[in-house]
Design brief:
Helix 1 (5-30) packs across helix 15. The radius of gyration is 23 Å and the shape is globular. 38% of the residues are buried. A five-stranded mixed β-sheet has the order 3-4-2-1-5. It has helices at 5-30, 33-36, 38-59, 61-71, 76-85, 87-90, 94-110, 122-136, 187-195, 203-213, 229-247, 261-274, 276-282, 284-295, 301-309, and strands at 112-115, 149-153, 172-174, 182-186, 339-340. The protein contains 15 helices and five strands. By secondary structure, the protein is mainly alpha-helical. Strand 3 and strand 4 (182-186) form a beta hairpin. The structure holds zinc ion (2 copies).
Amino acid sequence: MHISDRKKSLNRTLSLVAVVLLLLTYLAIVSRVYAVNPMTFYILIAIGALVSYNVYQIFTKKFRERDQMIQTPFPEAWRAILEQYVEYYRALSDEQKRLFESEIQIFLHETRVTGIQCEVDDTTLVLAAASAEIPVFSFPEWEYDNLGEILIYPNAFSKDFRTEGEGRNVWGMVGTGLMEGVMILSQPALISGFKNDNDKQNVGIHEFAHLLDAADGEYDGVPRAFLHHQYIEPWLEAMHREIQRINTGESNMNPYAATAPVEFFAVATEYFFEHPEAMKQRKPELYELMCKIFNQDTGSRFRNALKSMVNYTGNKVGRNSDCPCGSGKKYKNCCLKNARQYAMEV
Ligand SMILES: [Zn+2]
Ligand SMILES: [Zn+2]
């Protein structure tokens, strides 16, 4: 979630404090000039004021742009896509729908979505953003801190991002190392995750769940940033019990959940958002814990506020890096041309 008055006022306060400190330091330095040449002193003061004003504008840019985004009408074509594909959206009240739409606009303004050897159409763009917003829709303080770019692959890919040859069975992944903060989604998998409402599978939500899990610094299937300390033990116990049920064939959960705790959390998140009633009925214990997770938000408010001041919008593939498609060309001369980012109407 991006829209939060609290975040906005924290940004303003911090920016103001930073600028005032800057100005005071500057004044202390130039005050000596007055005795020598008052005219020069006044010119220096004017320059100082101008620079401070600009620095303040830079520090508050992200939130001012968010305000503008909220004022920008949501594209009708995008609304139709949400109505058609996103069950979660259909269930929202009108007021919540408008909020969800603004969230999507801001997300797509701050996150680049790039087709690797493919075009990013509106459906792909809107569904990628919806996957991001659904799990965090009730957390006004949340920011996808490091995520700056989503790469869309035309099909399944291999663990080393190849789209041809053997071993292509990956539908989505969160990059590490050089690809840190970059998410990769296969286009057909992203779309089919939304097409079938009750299948408990949604690769977009799955990958964003991994980011929530990692918010505490570790991919371990325990989303500590969202889970009060007292629930960590119950979560681990519930997870191990359910993994056992999967292994003995007694569970209706996707067996992929049993491969590792980190996958268990991501699969449980898909289930929770795709088919909450079924989870409530069939796995009440797990459902209760998921409710706790997705209604808690301890956040990292201060760190996010500082990152917002420098207009940090997350890691992206470098313009001069090798293109992820493997063409050997620089990214800016290859697939980056397929990038889409939502521009503001000025
Ligand atoms: Zn996974
Ligand atoms: Zn390329």
